[in-house]
Amino acid sequence: TLFRSIAIFIISAIVLNKTRFGLRMCACGENPQAAESLGVNVQKYRYAALIIAGFIGGMGGLMYILPVATNYSQTVGGYGYLAMSVLIFGQWRSLPLLGAAAFFAFCKTIANAYAGIPLLSNLGLPAAFYKSLPFIITLLALAVTSKHDHAPKASGQPYDKSMR
Q1: Residues 25-73: tens digit of each pLDDT
Q2: Cβ(45)–Cβ(31) under 8 Å?
Q3: The model's pTM
Q4: Using DSSP, how many helices (H) and how many strands (E) does the chain show?
């Protein structure tokens, strides 16, 4: 699954940063009025982005849950929160996003394997502390880096042709 994840990341980065489709999609998120003035159908690209993001999110969830789950537990364990935090912490750019994801994966690994690390297991802290560690570190990282957050300008705003 690691190979598939890296392959999806590389393909996504190339498509978004090097192809006409990806550059137009980014323009529709950053400045949809400018993209529309150049003849780009903004609604079509926004729907395509939504469908692609849903597919990649579903594949990510599938890659996460299949190797570790034997039964359905009716919870997502806060991974949607971590995914949004990685996106914000990575500032919507490919390489910083990869670094943020690796950082949070490291935190999650520490939380799951603390019992096998003598230094951490000898501290005598409860297991709940280690399980909440990725979320605590996420909040701290977002608090520190939130000043430099540069989301796409049109993120979350419905597109209105009359605003041109």
Answers
A1: 888 888 888 889 889 999 899 889 888 888 877 776 666 666 556 666 6
A2: no
A3: 0.67
A4: 8, 0
Q: What are phi and psi for residue 143, nearest 5 degrees?
A: -65, -40
Asked whether 159 and 32 are in contact (CB, 8 A), the reply is yes
Q: And the tokens for 119?
A: 């230094």
Alpha-carbon span 37 to 90, nearest angstrom: 30
CA dihedral sign of residues 54, 59, 63, 66 = positive
Residue 54 neighbours by CB distance under 10 Å: 10
pLDDT at 75: 63
Q: Give the residue ranges of DSSP H helices in 69-156.
A: 79-89, 94-113, 118-121, 127-145
In our burial notation (b when 16+ CB lie closer than 10 A, e otherwise), range 6-34 reads: eeebeebbeebeeeeebebbbbbbeebee
